[in-house]
Amino acid sequence: MILKTVLELSNLIDGHRQDMYVLTKNKGTAHPEVIKISQQLDEDILRLQSIIDEINPRHQTLI
């Protein structure tokens, strides 16, 4: 169950990154769609980090 969630989040994160790259290239960094995807990307990364911290509490996330 956890592995499935991690894989889904990983795929979502990759998709958001690709979408953000294309949108930023076409519309600029301040476009509302870019900001929305950036916020979703942040949320998904935080969810993934939270899962990793639950699995391995000693894991230190580098930001």
Protein model, in words:
- With 63 residues, the chain is an all-alpha fold.
- Helices cover 79% and strands 0% of the residues.
- The protein has helices spanning 2-27, 32-55.
- Helix 1 (2-27) runs antiparallel to helix 2 (32-55).
- It is elongated and about 40 Å long.
- The model has no long low-confidence stretch (mean pLDDT 90).
Describe the structure using short key phrases.
79% helix, single chain, 63 residues, 2 helices, elongated, mainly alpha
Percent of residues in beta strands? under 5%
Q: Give the terminus-to-terminus CA distance.
A: 27 Å
Total beta strand runs: 0
- The helix-and-strand class reads mainly alpha
* Number of distinct helices: 2
Provide the helix percentage.
over 70%
Shape: elongated
Write a short abstract of this structure:
With 63 residues, the protein is mainly α. Helices cover 79% and strands 0% of the residues. The chain is built from two helices and no strands.
Q: Layout of helices and strands, plus pairs?
A:
Blueprint: H1 2-27, H2 32-55
Helix pairs in contact: 1-2
